[in-house]
Amino acid sequence: MRTYYWFITFICITFISCAKPDYYSPDQVKYINTKGIYDSLKAELLPVSVLAPYQISFVDSLLVIMTKNPSEFISIFNTRSDSLIANICSEGRGPNEYMTPFSLKQYKTNESGDRLLYVTNLIMVKPLNITRSIRENEAVCENPVSIDTRYMDSFFLPRESRFMKQHVTYDDPRDNIFYPPKYIYKNNSTAKEYNIYPDVIKNISFPALPLSLYDGVVRVKPDLTKVIDAMGYLDIMNIIELPSGICTGVVEQDAYQFEDLVHLSMDKLFETIRYGVLDVSVTDEYIIVLYDGRNVNAAENRTEALKPSLKIYNWEGDFLQGYHLSEPLRGIAYDENRQYVYGFDMEEHFYRYKLTIN
Question: Is the bond preceding 243 in cis, omega lying within 30 degrees of 0?
């Protein structure tokens, strides 16, 4: 009998050790081809002068510019008058101040009709009241919501529910044992997890690879029915329906898969992995992606200049059209009413492009 138990144990261990890792498991996969000849968009230089911009978003007729300037974290540009109308928000821990502001570009209208922008700040989300901030010419914030935004991207949904992307986690990074990212839908006291990445990738030559590989740009559809998570280093986008959690993986036909990266050396990894999505702007109809496309070596060693493109999709994951950009943009925002894309580069130049989506 003892021999029998040892035999069963051996079989179980062998089965577990031989089981193939499941790195990516959306409910369905849609393969697309975005390669081809793109038209070019003509840029218009804008009269915007701000220090160290790193993020832009669009609401109504306003371009909201997040900067790294601790005396003026936020600048607001009126696109109808083409003028800066506010430079606000200083560094600090007060009720109307931020330490490290960052936005996932989700807006809301409060009961008074004021426009709010959700802004993360360390272990909380502190909504910025755009309407009152412009009127009073100083930052005005709403009551903060406690969320550890260092490890979690969080979106606010109807009936006090939230959708969150939990980034790669670990107990001790020195152990090189990492846990895959998760998507979580939380409604009052209940939470539901969607494990689209059942197993985390392991690469012997670069054990810390998961900490960067799963990074992406996450946005919520304005009507709050879907979320897009566009991976920053692989040509993969996840479109997730809310609250069901049904995920469509949108994958470039010639994209590298997770399995392709497991046994690569570090040098080969940096030749293979591409800088992909730089930024994403969404409407209820479209997903507009600012895409880099250089491999890591070319970007880091500056052997190839940044010449990004715009890729436009619908919320079913279909690729609609693409455009080349002559300017090395780092971030974008879209005005769907006037059909303009706004962007900025690392030299602090701001541009506007007329974008007609067919």
Answer: yes
**What amino acid occupies position 346?**
M
The 3 state secondary structure assigned to 249-272 is EEEECCCCCHHHHCCCCHHHHHHH
Of 179, 161, 276, the residue nearest 227 (C-alpha): 161
The 10 Å Cβ neighbour count of residue 187 is: 15
Nearest to 229 by CA among 265, 261, 182: 182
> What number of residues does the chain have?
358
Q: What is the mean pLDDT of residues 260-275?
A: 90
Helices assigned H by DSSP within 180-247: 210-213
User: In Å, what is the CA distance from 178 to each residue of 128, 207, 265?
Assistant: 34, 9, 19
Type of residue numbered 88: I
Q: What is the pairing mode between strands 128-129 and 161-166? A: unpaired
Burial class of residue 186, CB neighbours in 10 A (0-12, 13-18, 19+): middle
Q: Which residue type does 281 have?
A: S
Amino acid at 83: S
Query: Residue 327: how many CA atoms within 13 Å on its side-chain side?
Result: 22
What whole-number distance in Å separates Cα of residue 135 and Cα of residue 341? 26
Residue 10's pLDDT is: 47
Q: Encoding tokens for residue 198? A: 């059942």
Average pLDDT of span 234-253: 94
* Cβ atoms within 10 Å, residue 330: 20
Beta-bridge partners for 326: none
The radius of gyration of the chain from alpha carbons, rounded to an integer in Å, stands at: 22
Q: Of the candidates 34, 33, 31, which has an alpha carbon nearest to the alpha carbon of residue 323?
A: 34
Beta-carbon count within 10 A of 340 CB: 18
CB contact at 8 A, 101 and 89: yes
pLDDT tens column, 152-188: 899 999 988 999 999 999 988 788 899 999 999 998 8
**CA–CA separation, 50 vs 331, rounded Å?**
14
Q: How far is CA 302 from CA 54, 263, 271, 305, in A?
A: 20, 26, 13, 6
